[in-house]
Design goal:
mainly alpha; 14 helices; single chain
Length: 298
């Protein structure tokens, strides 16, 4: 397996997380000038967490390539170790603030898919990446979420697990297992905006696409911390911002800032949507990387 390709794949995964974090405005999310309204996480902390995942994504891409002949569903058990180490690395880098489990799961599977596809000499299209990554996660929700009950026996549940027990929301596990449907829509929204809204810069395209994600994403962070009513409220506010024009009109931009103000006043942070957007940037950009003798170069 080409080690430079593996490194460049992992580097792009980290870059995609940082690029999403760098966008402003992002209602209820960390930006270079805004902290998380949920826990006060700031931009430098998020950068530290993202950078700490580089080795995790290198290991995932390598594992995907090294297991090219294995059944996809059997690969997931091999990815557990780098994923667990990656979350621990993020916790250490952020002094216990962020485990970044959603990014580790969804992006780690995509990195593994990239490695597998290259080893099989297949074309790295966004669709192929997401379907391959999804094949690794077959049966994941049944194994990890279905057995959960209110009687945890002292186990501390993650926000995603609490949201599943209370509302049946599958979160990042469901996104991965069911074909990265919202990631696909976000990637398509970015492509559409690039093709039809040439006046928008990168930041504006990502914000607008993120609003579309928020309008329908079943964000477990919102549900776990604010209940299903908060999730539905954020979805409706995002739909209203998009209907007003989003980043395409002055009225829409006003609606985006109003939504941001409202979410921050309520302590609502749709972190699941930021995971989806990071993955969408990754699958969009990986397909455009150029293969050389020494690996993929941007």
């Amino acid at each position: 397996m080409n080690e430079i390709y593996v490194f460049n794949t992992a580097k792009l995964a980290v870059k995609s997380i940082i690029s999403t974090a760098s966008v402003y405005p992002k209602p209820g999310l960390v930006t270079p000038i805004d902290e998380s309204p949920l826990d006060g996480t700031d931009f430098p902390c998020l950068l530290d967490g993202a950078m700490s995942l580089l080795q995790c994504f290198v290991n995932c891409a390598s594992a995907g390539a090294d297991t090219e002949s294995m059944k996809p569903v059997d690969v997931f058990s091999i990815l557990r170790s780098p994923g667990r180490i990656g979350s621990n690395d993020a916790l250490c880098a952020t002094r216990g603030r962020l485990a970044m489990k959603g990014h580790v799961l969804c992006m780690g599977l995509l990195c593994a898919a990239a490695g597998r596809l290259l080893a099989q000499k297949r074309i790295l299209t966004p669709g192929a990446l997401m379907l391959t990554a999804s094949s690794f996660a077959e049966g994941l929700t049944a194994r990890e979420l279905w057995p959960l009950t209110d009687n945890t026996g002292g186990k501390v549940l993650s926000p995603g697990e609490r949201a599943y027990i209370t509302y049946g929301l599958e979160g990042c596990r469901g996104e991965a297992e069911h074909g990265y449907a919202r990631t696909m829509k976000a990637a398509e929204a970015l492509r559409r905006l690039e093709a039809t809204q040439g006046q928008l810069n990168f930041r504006e395209r990502v914000t607008h696409a993120l609003l579309e994600v928020m309008s329908e994403n079943q964000d477990t962070s919102l549900a776990a911390h604010g209940g299903i009513s908060e999730l539905m409220r954020v979805q409706e506010e995002a739909r209203e911002a998009v209907s007003a024009g989003g980043m395409l009109t002055t009225e829409g931009l006003d609606a985006v800032f109003a939504m941001d103000k409202n979410l921050r006043s309520r302590g609502a942070s749709p972190t699941g949507s930021s995971v989806v957007m990071s993955c969408a940037l990754f699958v969009r950009e990986l397909g455009s990387m150029r293969l050389t003798r020494s690996g993929y170069d941007e």
